[in-house]
Design brief:
The protein has helices at 2-19, 37-44, 59-76, 92-99, 105-111, 118-131, 143-152, 162-165, 180-191, 199-216, 239-246; strands at residues 25-29, 49-54, 80-88, 136-140, 223-229, 252-260, 276-281. The protein has 288 residues and is of the alpha/beta class.
Length: 288
């Protein structure tokens, strides 16, 4: 009888847990209508580029990125290309050498400039690409060049050696200071007493570089899945704006990530951030 109870009690607890299920996330379309995960995935199938905007320290974002990657791999196979903001363009050779088995993961992780949450949040994506023989592209500008822009503006990039310019988009950098995202950044800094017209340019060089390396590594009939901070594609600006400037005919689908206390409805301020909005419970544990 005791053995029977030991089996039944855990099952009863699980049953209660399922009945009182508390979701940690919800998906909405840009108009604020709740949408199923599978329907979102289906809408991605014909896209040239899927832009997954994350909250860097949110575990739900990172889990869903891996799930979306697996789903799109099932559809696209080796025609899927992965890329990320978290890897700078001058580290591409290190990624390629690691994928070609010239050294082990320990050596790769020691030599690449990896984010503090690499092992928990980005390593699964990189290793998925490596295991499945997919290209993984380091798209972001080397941080030293973003620092140059912040201090001296775009013009300073012209003085770099030609070898350095290989890690950048074509110069001069296209820039629209009137884009709302860059204007908001500038206004925020003014309110803090730190007005510097180069600050949004330092953001723009990141957006422009990521767009450049996405396009450089996207061939006909391929699909590029890109991971980045959600502010780099919110409101279809940032990277998306640069992609469209280069090729207006691209089919681009975007995901934005936000936190809310209530998952039942999409708050008005979060409408139209992207084609799909991932809403995560604001009490979710952070990864770092």
């Amino acid at each position: 009888m005791k053995r029977f109870l030991l089996l039944v009690i855990p099952l009863a607890i699980l049953s209660i847990a399922f009945k009182t299920d508390k979701p940690s996330y919800q998906l909405f379309n840009k108009d604020g209508k709740s949408i199923k995960y599978k329907k979102m995935i289906k809408s991605f199938e014909e896209a040239d580029i899927v832009m997954f905007g994350e909250l860097h320290n949110n575990p739900v974002c990172h889990w869903l990125q891996l799930e979306v990657t697996k789903e799109l791999f099932e559809v696209k196979g080796d025609q899927l290309v992965l890329g990320a903001e978290m890897f700078e363009s001058d580290n591409q050779i290190i990624i390629d050498e690691y994928f070609a088995d010239f050294f082990k993961a320990k050596k790769f992780e020691a030599d690449a400039r990896l984010w503090p949450n690499y092992k928990t949040d980005y390593k699964p994506l990189l290793e998925f690409a490596r295991t499945n023989n997919l290209d993984f592209i380091a798209t972001n500008v080397p941080r030293r060049y973003a620092s140059i822009v912040h201090k001296k503006g775009f013009e300073a990039l012209e003085d770099l050696p030609d070898a350095s310019k290989a890690f950048l988009p074509e110069l001069p950098i296209l820039y629209d200071a009137e884009l709302p995202a860059y204007q908001e950044m500038m206004e925020m800094m003014k309110s803090m007493g730190h007005a510097n017209e180069n600050l949004p340019k330092a953001q723009a060089i990141k957006d422009a570089t990521m767009a450049h390396f996405i396009l450089k590594n996207l061939e006909k009939d391929q699909q590029f899945l890109h991971y980045h901070g959600t502010y780099h594609s919110n409101n279809f600006e940032g990277i998306v704006w640069y992609l469209k400037q280069a090729n207006p005919d691209l089919k681009i689908m975007t995901i934005s990530s936000v936190e809310q206390a209530d998952l039942e409805t999409l708050e008005e301020e979060n409408h139209n951030l992207a084609d799909f909005i991932l809403v995560v419970d604001e009490d979710m544990t952070k990864t770092h």
